[in-house]
TrEMBL record:
InterPro entries: DUF1759
Species name: Araneus ventricosus
Cross-referenced PANTHER family: PROTEIN CBG08539, RETROVIRAL PROTEASE-RELATED
Protein name (database record): Uncharacterized protein
Length: 300
């Protein structure tokens, strides 16, 4: 019995030293997965030899009927080592899982402060509705903001003295009235058919302006930016170039300066007969190239 107790003492010391070594490695960040695997194997080996020795001592104590109290004390002491083994093995397994399946790192923290976004005020001009709604829609769709607060935000973003303010102020500022106010805003300023008419009429007004002022007095970069903005607005409303290109292309052509229109017709004549080179996308790509060429000439 004494020989077994001496052996157990030595095994417990080795087990404790192994535990301390593992805890030191767990607290650091240098050790690799292979090193943790090796420590796990070593810990299992030391615990198994300690457990075998402990079982021999327990069996010897049970053989003596008068040693029940000694067996109980010895068992309680042995349980501390078993619990310690289970705890450290859990930490090792978690560490190995972390090494094998790396977690995506957090995005780097900005070392600068972004300026605070200001909500765009809406003055009731339907031309500005898309820009206004694209920003306010984020607030509108946020489920964490109660409707009474959304109503107050809506009151703040309409321009003072505008048609939009008169419409919003016609509703008492309550949570139940917020969806009604938004619906009326959409009906009054954000209907697709209304916006399409506005942007098409703007294109027509550009044609009329070209006819009255003369083709030679138009700045191509400014004209291109205006055309691109209106066409993008129509596209955002679902009026794609593929569906409405045949209708819009003649309008855009009528806005062009004379020399640009001649160059466009010349480029079309050089295209293959099998290619539909009169599409709106081809025309806008041609204008983009002309704008770039004009800007390069100005830099020369």
């Amino acid at each position: 019995m004494q020989a077994l107790k001496t052996q157990r003492k030595v095994l417990r010391t080795a087990f404790t030293l192994c535990i301390k070594n593992i805890e030191a490695k767990l607290q650091g960040e240098i050790a690799e997965a292979e090193e943790f695997s090796l420590l796990q194997v070593q810990l299992k080996d030391k615990f198994q030899r300690l457990e075998d020795c402990q079982q021999s001592i327990a069996a010897s104590l049970l053989q003596n009927e008068g040693d029940e109290s000694l067996f109980e004390l010895d068992f309680v002491e042995a349980e501390k080592y078993r619990d310690r083994f289970s705890e450290v093995m859990l930490h090792l397994n978690l560490k190995l899982t972390e090494k094998v399946v790396p977690i995506d790192p957090l995005p780097p923290k900005r070392n600068f402060k972004l300026p605070q976004l200001q909500l765009k005020k809406f003055n009731g001009d339907a031309r500005d509705y898309l820009a206004f709604w694209s920003q306010f829609q984020k607030l509108h769709a946020d489920p964490d903001i109660p409707n009474e607060d959304k109503m107050q935000y809506l009151i703040q973003v309409v321009e003072e003295g505008s048609k939009a303010e008169r419409l919003v102020q016609s509703f008492p500022a309550t949570a139940s009235n917020y969806p009604k106010a938004i619906q009326q805003m959409q009906e009054r300023f954000g209907r697709d058919d209304l916006l399409v008419q506005i942007y098409v009429r703007d294109l027509l007004s550009m044609v009329m302006k070209t006819a009255t002022t003369g083709r030679m007095k138009i700045s191509l970069p400014i004209l291109y930016d205006e055309l691109e903005g209106k066409l993008r607005a129509l596209e955002s409303l679902g009026k794609t170039q593929e569906k409405y290109g045949d209708f819009l292309t003649p309008l855009v052509e009528s806005c062009l300066p004379e020399e640009v229109l001649i160059a466009w017709e010349r480029s079309r004549s050089n295209e293959s007969e099998t290619k539909n080179s009169r599409s709106l996308s081809d025309l806008m790509a041609f204008l983009q190239g002309e704008v770039r060429s004009e800007e390069m000439v100005l830099l020369a």
